[in-house]
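Z., the sequence and structure:
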Amino acid sequence: MKILSRITSDVPFFKLFGDDILEFKQSSWKRIQLFHSADKARTYLTDSYTQLEIENPSAKAYDNCYSFIYYLEQGEIFYKQAAQTPLSIKPILLYYGLVHLVKACLLSVDPYYPHSTTVLAHGVSTRKRKRRDYQFLEDEVKIQKNGLCTYFLERMFHVKHLEGEKFKMGDLLQLVVEMDECFLFLNGMPNMIELPRVDAHSCLIPKQLLESYYMDKKRMKEYLAHKCGKEIQWVKDEGENITLRQSIGNTPPFRYHMEKQSLWLPANIHAFTYLPDLLIHYLVLYNLSMISRYETEWWMELIKTTPNSDYPFIRNFLDITELKGPFLIENFLNKTSKEVPYPKE
């Protein structure tokens, strides 16, 4: 596997060759570890704060550089321990690993984090579970007014007004593009459609999506531009298909499949298509960490007897998020979401 790795603001999303997942996982951490230098962290934060027009950015960067590094280091420790730990406690370690990595990202866009104790809570709650006939995919989490979840959504992704919103686990997992094979095998239908490539920098929105969305070309372009919230570079129409530049990157509703290295869209219009990937992983991990801590009887029975389809969905997600979490964090820190090219032939 060859990996293009430079820490610059204008470098494209790194390219992967081959399917060596272990090397892929190591590469994400290696790129994150480049920030462990105090000099690098200070320069990076100074540049970020300067772009934000913060008063005296170099001084704030000096104050925050070690906290920034420690969040990254602690997050990595949690993830690496999770890779070696039994499944029963893995969600707890992965969740707190992601929390620390998110805090590092917050420091890159908010020099005053945490400015109050209100942003230190999880920012999510779970409903009281029924012990009989409980199904994980039907379980819900609720966004709270204050806490880390609400705060990083606003500061990192400019998503507001989700207070009180409830999300079902099944709806969230449908938007994890790497879960599509699991849904296809267990439910018999795909949740996501891959966008075939035209060349190294463009891909097609196939006729299949136009039909499932009940839209013509013009309406589809308007819909995606509205949902995406940023300009999409349309190249040309290919017969019954639409062609766009991949400079749109991993921006909802577009999802980047980290193993197949391609862009995907939901197979049908999805109510929560605007949710960032990082939020989806945060919410599902939060719920699983709460289950493993406080619903011990159900959790251990699930692991030991695998009585229903909850187990393969949960196990598959945990395997994916162990890779995708650092991948998303590294992408955010390097601000490389401008373009997601396909691998060269």
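The longest strand covers residues 234-238. Confidence is low (pLDDT under 50) at residues 1-19, 336-345.

Let me know what you think.
H.
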